[in-house]
Amino acid sequence: MERIKMPVPLVEMDGDEMTRVLWKMIKEELLLPYIDLNTEYYDLGLEYRNETNDQVTIDSAMATKKYGVAVKCATITPNAARMEEYHLKEMWKSPNGTIRALLDGTVFRTPIIVKGIEPVVKNWKKPISIARHAYGDVYKASEMKIPGPGRCELVYTAQDGSETRELIHQFEGPGIVQGMHNLESSIESFARSCFNYALDTRQDLWFATKDTISKKYDHTFKDIFQEIYDKDYAARFEEAGITYFYTLIDDAVARVIRSEGGYIWACKNYDGDVMSDMVATAFGSLAMMTSVLVSPEGYYEYEAAHGTVQRHYYKYLKGETTSTNSVATIFAWTGALRKRGELDQVPELVRFAGLLEKATIDTIEGGRMTKDLALMTSLENPVVETSEGFIQAARQTLETLL
Ligand code: NAP
Ligand code: MG
Fold it and tell me: Residue 221: CB partners within 8 Å, gap ≥ 6?
């Protein structure tokens, strides 16, 4: 078979620890034999980030703006222990945070469903993707402890100096108070990213807030989504045969549990934080969860939802065998390659991405999997593969499909 050509490069962001080890294996076993891989490589491993004063992270985000699609390996977010371990010049910021700040946009997380790893919620048949708004609300709030009786107000001072006030509470004793905000521009780009992603994946979009109680704050989210939908998306949704559905957050939670899955659930920042952990856990494992950042301009950055699996890496360094799950990282690659294929009209690339995903899933459903899955599968007598053993098994399955 001739290797598939890629006319436009994919931005490749390498990373750290065990996922860096898997990254190389995935490329060598599952990609390079079949694709004439055209990537623009950025090493986001912590050593090189430190060497370049984190410029490489910024460069990789700018390259994503240029080419439109990136695939990213998990990376270390430095803390005090990492400062010492890697002799860092500075406690560099989270690369994901830096990239998100430059690209803007929304992170969509979707579980990978396989037979034998059953969701805890037994009627969930299809994946539920969570779209979390990543700006503002309680994550950028100001808080105060109120020591005793007194008056608490919201005060807005306009540029001309005029003030608008709103009483929060007339305290008669000690208490607490919090002020939070959001921006219309950020809510708009959140809405557009969600509508675009729904069209892209041909799935219904659900959105929910507490607008009955929060008549200005949450209601603004609801109104902005509806205005943008009516103006720019309603016709395209109808054409694609999908729907946009708004409801109250409590109603949404009940419906999600009773549903079959197969839709995108857009959440405000806090709801998304909490609900994505619930959905990921109920579907099985963080190692089976993909993540894609979609910018309002239509740039895509694909990655796994888990971290660098540090504990496994230290075992690997000692020469011990590891059994680290590479599925989410494989799917980060297939997601990015499929998107590249669609944008550049290379149907072979789209087809290959689908086959590699199928090979990965078939391998697990055929009983060969890493230890994390073997511990929870309902399949009998699973074969526990090593990190490289699983990737080789997936390649064998892929060969039979090609
Ligand atoms: P983690 O790497 O996700 O791993 C936590 C634990 O979850 C592992 O020890 C392992 O459990 C299990 N696990 C996660 N992924 C797995 C996989 N693919 N296969 C098998 N088991 C898996 O989280 P962490 O240990 O909290 O963080 C490690 C580093 O990753 C940190 O430096 C953090 O900054 C970074 N991080 C990066 C990203 C990102 O780049 N997107 C996200 C999160 C964290 P057992 O040890 O019990 O087997
Ligand atoms: Mg959380």
Answer: 182, 187, 207, 209, 211, 268
- Residue 143: which residues within 8 A CB-CB, separation 6 or more? 176, 177, 178, 179
What pLDDT, in 10s, does the model give residues 237-250? 999 999 999 999 99
Q: What is the CA 217 to chain-centroid distance, rounded?
A: 26
| Tens-place pLDDT, residues 324-335 | 999 999 999 999
Q: Is 324 in the pocket of ligand 1 (CB under 6 A)?
A: yes
Q: How far apart are CA 112 and CA 305, in angstroms?
A: 11
- Give percent of the chain with pLDDT exceeding 90: 89
CA of 266 to the centre of ligand 1 (A): 25
Task: List, in sequence order, every residue forming a beta bridge with 156; answer none if it has no partner.
Answer: 164
| Ligand 1 centroid to residue 164 C-alpha, Å | 47
Side-chain-side CA neighbours of 323 within 13 Å: the count stands at 12
- Give the mutation target among 23, 26, 82, 306 for probing the ligand 1 site: most ligand atoms within 8 A of CB: 306
Q: Is 311 in the pocket of ligand 1 (CB under 6 A)?
A: yes
Does the Cβ of 96 fall within 6 Å of ligand 1?
yes
